[in-house]
Amino acid sequence: MPGCQRYERPKILTTTAVIFWILNIVLDTTGHLAFKSVATVGHTTELERWKKMLALPTMWLGIVCFVFEFVAWLALLSLIPLSLALIIGTMNIVAVMLAGKLLFAEQLDGMRIVGMSFIVIGVALAGGCA
Predict the structure, then answer these.
(1) Cys-Cys crosslink for 28: which of 61, 92, 94, 102, Cβ 3.0 to 4.6 Å?
(2) pLDDT computed for residue 34 by the predictor
């Protein structure tokens, strides 16, 4: 396709790619947790709820995290093929689920744990074949 770059498959993820991958996970997880914490604000009307949420520093932390995650994601995409980035990017799901369990006492039933295990195995296989 015109304008598309061809990537040469790296043998392993470079240190820079791993740094951007970890940064992406941290920023994504922090953003989701920040939004979850403000989403439970008490309110009588939706307008009041949004006013309260927008007044909380945690809401702005979430927004800033997602802006920087966007930058980290673009940086990661500049280093590795999209197909690999999407596979390893699914680790964000695992991180958010585990953090939700720790910070918000959310339930992790057997099926969710099995699903998370499949994600981890898939990432390990994809990362090993990169």
Answers:
(1) 92
(2) 96
- The length of the chain is 130
| pLDDT band at 61; cut points 50, 70, 90 | very high
Question: H or E element: which one contains 42?
Answer: none
Distance CA 69, CA 37 (A): 19
Cβ neighbours of residue 27 closer than 8 Å, sequence gap 6 or more:
65, 66, 68, 69, 72
Tokens 């690999």 locate to: 84
Contact call for residues 27 and 82 (beta carbons, < 8 A):
no
Give me 110's structure tokens: 């057997």
pLDDT in tens, 22-58: 999 999 999 999 999 998 888 888 899 899 999 999 9
* Three-state SS at 59: helix
Q: Which two tokens stand for residue 58?
A: 């945690």
84 three-state secondary structure: helix
Is pTM beyond 0.70 here? yes
